[in-house]
């Protein structure tokens, strides 16, 4: 059994016999003696419905046994993305919905982990950090030093758009956190 306080985003939980993936997780204290509750945004893996629940931190969810496969991205075929299992060299097809918001980070030969439950892919885990090249960004207004100045930048191939500091230019390689979709640092 897994307690609600231990259910981080991306993890699979079982609630009322159905599988859910945790999309967001916000623990907070209520009142002086109310204890800790966890606001959780969860997505039903069968229906795709998203709901908010608010279990107490010690509430428990059933354990889910998952099989992990290390894969390498190969190519896209229609709406499916084809990966090669690094151990067996079998092809694994994943739809774009399972890749979610991180689809923009997907690059040829990228290594990922895919988790399966009873033969069905239920979760894709991207590397924590990826390096991408800026393909387009605009110049910032000169003299704007009122604080942390950010501007929009489009990334190579995918067109993923994130906020970057004003000193980043077209052609710069940057490190991005795939969990938060935020700029980390410029890569030399």
TrEMBL record:
Indicate whether Ribonucleoprotein appears among the record's keywords.
no
Q: In which pathway does it act?
A: Protein biosynthesis; polypeptide chain elongation
Residues of the Translation elongation factor P/YeiP central domain: 68-122
Query: Might you name a Gene Ontology BP term for this protein?
Result: peptide biosynthetic process
Keywords from UniProt, A to Z, are:
Cytoplasm, Elongation factor, Protein biosynthesis
Q: Name the CDD domains on file.
A: S1_EF-P_repeat_1
Q: Any idea which GO molecular function terms this record carries?
A: translation elongation factor activity
Q: Which domain of life is it from?
A: Bacteria
Q: Where is the Elongation factor P C-terminal domain?
A: 130-186
Q: What is the stated purpose of this protein?
A: Involved in peptide bond synthesis. Stimulates efficient translation and peptide-bond synthesis on native or reconstituted 70S ribosomes in vitro. Probably functions indirectly by altering the affinity of the ribosome for aminoacyl-tRNA, thus increasing their reactivity as acceptors for peptidyl transferase.
PANTHER family the record matches: ELONGATION FACTOR P, ELONGATION FACTOR P (EF-P) FAMILY PROTEIN
In Swiss-Prot or TrEMBL terms, this protein is called Elongation factor P
Organism source for this protein? Answer: Termititenax aidoneus
């Amino acid at each position: 059994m897994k307690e609600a306080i231990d259910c981080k985003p991306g993890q699979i939980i079982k609630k009322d016999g159905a599988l859910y993936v945790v999309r967001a997780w916000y623990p907070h204290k209520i009142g002086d003696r109310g204890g800790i509750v966890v606001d959780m945004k969860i997505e039903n893996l069968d229906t795709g419905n998203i709901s908010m629940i608010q279990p107490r931190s010690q509430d428990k969810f059933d354990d889910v046994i998952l099989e992990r496969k290390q894969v390498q991205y190969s190519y896209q075929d229609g709406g499916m993305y084809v990966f090669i299992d690094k151990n067996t060299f079998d092809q694994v097809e994943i739809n774009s919905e399972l890749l979610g918001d991180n689809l923009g980070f997907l690059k040829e030969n990228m290594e990922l982990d895919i988790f399966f439950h009873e033969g069905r892919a239920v979760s894709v885990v991207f590397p924590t950090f990826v390096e991408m090249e800026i393909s387009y960004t605009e110049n910032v207004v000169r003299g704007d030093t009122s604080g942390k100045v950010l501007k929009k930048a489009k990334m190579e191939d995918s067109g993923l758009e994130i906020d970057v500091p004003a000193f980043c230019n077209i052609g710069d390689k940057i490190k991005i956190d795939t969990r938060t979709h935020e700029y980390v640092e410029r890569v030399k």
